[in-house]
Every structure is written in structure tokens, then in C-alpha cells.
Amino acid sequence: MRSVVVAGVGMTPFGKFLDRNVKSLCEEAVKAALDDAGVGAGDVDQIYFGNAAGGTVNGQEMIRAQAALRNTGLSGKPMFNVENACASSSTAFHLAWLSIASGQSETALVVGVEKLSHEDKAVSFGAFAGAVDIEEPKPQGVGSGSGSIFMDMYAAKARKWMSACNAEASDFAQVVVKSRRAASLNPHAQFRKETTVEEVLASRMISDPLTLFMCSSIGDGAAVLFLCSQDYAKKISNKPIYVRASSIVSAIPGASEVVAVRAGRLAYEQAGIGPEDIHVAELHDASAPAELIHYENLGFCASGDAPRLIRSGDTDLGGRISVNPSGGLLSRGHPLGATGAAQLIELTRQLRGQAGPRQRPGAKVGLAENNGGQLAGDSAVALVTILST
């Protein structure tokens, strides 16, 4: 397998843009990524296009990449449409990495995009309904919250986890405070106003113990990465960021380990490193408790120690393991199909030393964990990607 390099990145701001469509979001992000790499559309061998809910929200099915990219100069090239719930663009990244690592291509473009905002909020919430096994009975209490079955599921997991490790709602609130502080320094983030623990706890209850501020919001955006072989990267002036590992696993009903644990172990084995070697991480914090749970899933602390870790400040901006310095899903935003790519863009900028006031000093190794869907009490899919200088 050949070494693969992230050589260009670009993204739109994330937010609710009722006046924009998928095409305009893609065009902006594609241009930014190609400009960052100093290449043109003609230099792209293949395109991997991650989108989760286009069919539900805007009716575009089957040829989403071909339609969305028709004005970018990429028409005629091989395009692969990838749909894998919230993990769509990290899955697209995995496939692009495989293409280059195997020698099938020299370059590839990873596009992640989502247009979730809609004049009818029921359409937006409906986009999430199919990301579960629709024939699987829903756990008790799911559907009793304020509209999102996923937040009901996250809340149920949070309650179970709290009782096991003595976490408090204030620990979840502290995740949000950290997230908003990071996002206030990120010009691409959806929520850029700082907050306090008291404000988070006082925000509207969504599904106990999750308040409004503890839940990721609906949003729109696009994120794009230009990947290439190590030899091709010699033509590009950017500091090369290497793909050290990319793992993907799916849920196993009744398994003793959740997908995030299995994907993390595979990625560490592939990279030949351990969690103690990670300097910066982007984790799938679709709800605030998820960040803390992933501290344990990925070995950043021992089981039961996540509350202590968030309280220590070690995962804050510039900390020992700076977690979600982009603001994460909670504050940078969570346009489903763009989320995985956005995580990897933040890691790339951190490893290049280009994250400005969000920069983790001396960052050399970064990890991204991205989940998607729900199946049998677990996420349906998880990917862990490790990048390094």
C-alpha cells in the first residue's frame, strides 16, 4: 500500500442557509480545496461524494454527485456516490484513500455536503428517521422527546452511562462550554457565541438529561479534501499530511464492544500507535455526553474517568489532547454528509499549524471518530481516521 497525503482542504461556513442549494455549497468548497492544493479540476482522477439526506430533503437521488458538481469542471470524471448516514463523507474519504493507496489513482477528491434546512421543519427531522432499522422495535421512551428520535436514543445512553460513572449534567454542560469557546474562534462554525454552564443547564429540556444546548442542530454546509499519492504531493507546496490509518466497522447486534471501540482499536493497530500518542482529536459529539463516552471508547482515559478528564481541562484548547477544537458537531455544526470531511479538515489545519487561536501547540498526530445511524443499540457504523505530519 502506498502512502496517501491530504494536500488540499476547503469548506463553506456551516449554518442554516435557506437561500442556498447543494450545488452552490459544493462549488464553493471544491474551489477552496483545489485552490488550497494549487491544482485544477483537470488534476482530479476520481471523486467520492458523501451525502446522507439529499433524497429526503430536496428529492435528488441516484446521481447526487453528477448533479451537484456539474458546474465545477469535474464533469466526465469517475464519481462515486456514497451514502452512510452521518459517516457518509468519512466513508468517502476511506474509499478515496484506498483508491490511491492501492495505486488505482494518483489523486482523488472527497466531497461531503448536506442541505438539511427546509422551510418545513418536519422535512428536516424526517431526514433522520431512516437512519435506523425501521423494522427494529424502538427502545422504550424513544419518540417521547421534542422531535428527534436520535436525541431520545442519546439521552437513554447518557442516563445509563451517568449511573455507571457518577457523571453529572454539569459535566455535559462543560463539554458545551468548551465547544462554544472553540467555535467562537472558528469562522466556519455555526454557533459562535460563548456560553456558561448555567446557561446550558437552563436551556430547554429536549430529552432528559439533554438540554437544547447539549444537542447538535440541523445545518447546511460542504467540506472537501484533495488527496494524492506521496509522489504526486512533491508537486504541491503545502505541508504534506499523511493518512496513517482509516478503519471502518459496522454494528454487530449483541456485541460486547461498540463500533467506536472496535474502529479505534483497528486504527491504532494500523498506525502502530496508541491513544497516548494523539495530540488533537475530532469526535462525533452529536450530543454532549457522546464526547465524554468517546474519551473512554478511544482510550483517552480509563473506563469511568471521563468526568475527571473533562474537569481537568486536558481536552480543552491547547490541552494535552485537544478535543473538538473546531467546535465539534455541537458548535461547528452537523450537516450530516459534510461532518466527517469537516473533522478531517480541522485535523489537517491543526497538523499544518494553521488553526490560529485554536491551535494545539506542537500537534503532530490527529484522530477523527465519526459515527452514523443506529442499529441494535449501537451506532450502525463508525470510522476512525488517523493523520500525522
The tally of beta strands, per DSSP, is: 12
The string of secondary-structure elements, in order, is EHEHHEHEHHHHEEEHEHEHHEHHEE
The CATH homologous superfamily of the largest domain corresponds to Thiolase/Chalcone synthase
First CA to last CA: what distance? 18 Å
Q: Which structural class do you get from the secondary structure elements?
A: alpha/beta
Radius of gyration, taken over Cα atoms and rounded to an integer in Å: 19 Å
Provide the spatial order of strands within the biggest beta sheet: 3-2-4-7-1-8-12-11-9-10
Named CATH topology of the largest domain: Peroxisomal Thiolase, Chain A, domain 1
Shape: globular
Largest sheet: 10 strands, mixed
Q: Which percent bin holds the helix content?
A: 25-40%
- The CATH class of the largest domain turns out to be Alpha Beta
Query: Which stretches of 5+ consecutive residues score pLDDT under 50?
Result: none
Query: Strand fraction band?
Result: 15-25%
The CATH level-2 architecture of the largest domain is identified as: 3-Layer(aba) Sandwich
Count the helices. How many? 14
State the assembly state of the protein chains: single chain
Number of domains: 2
Estimate the mean pLDDT confidence. Answer: 95
